[in-house]
Structures are given as C-alpha cells and as structure tokens.
Amino acid sequence: MSKLSRARGPLRQVVLAATGQDVAKCTNCGDCEDLPIPDKDLTVGEMFQFAARDDESALASRTLWACDGAIEGIVCQARLDLAAVVAILRREAGLRGVAPSPNGSRVKEGGQSTVDG
Question: What is the domain partition of the chain in residue ranges?
Fold first, then answer.
C-alpha cells in the first residue's frame, strides 16, 4: 500500500463516507455476475469485496471502468447502489494514481505496471 493510499484511508471507509454505502455488506451473492459488462475481469461483487478489504485491485479492475450502463439504477440484495459505489471507486482510483491501461496491465503510482495473466 502506498503512502498516498494510507493517507486517503481504507477504501471501505472512503466509500462509506462519500456514499453511505458499506461495501463490506456485499455478500458476493451472484446477482451481479450476469450483468452485461464487456471485458470484465471481476464481477461487481468481487470488486466490492476487494474494496472492503482495502485491496487496490478493485481500483485497477477493468470492470470498474467498463460497467457504465450495466449498473445504472441497480440496488443489490445488500442494498448497495452499484453506480454510487463505482463512481466513488473511480474517483479514488484517479486520486491514488491507479488506472487500467489499454493492454490489460495495471499502471500504478510511480509508473509500475503489472500484466494480467
């Protein structure tokens, strides 16, 4: 975890403070598995569980950047507003300098890159 990430606080707390949504309530029930998200690498539930554990994989996920139309207006069984949580995770990714690159690798602070396998 980078110095900036520690200063920003855990992802769960950032999302909770900004939206009132607690990603730790996600049970990965599977309701979001079949959402039509092109090029997803995680389900929305998996992404939320990464965020609940303060794992920045949630921020670097292709799913975070590819799920626009598929999540609008959807509230899951855990009462999470998918679009509200995704919007804050995207904002946080930008603030922390974590964003996906077009070739499927992840670019993090300092220019480090990892390739999906």
Answer: 3-100
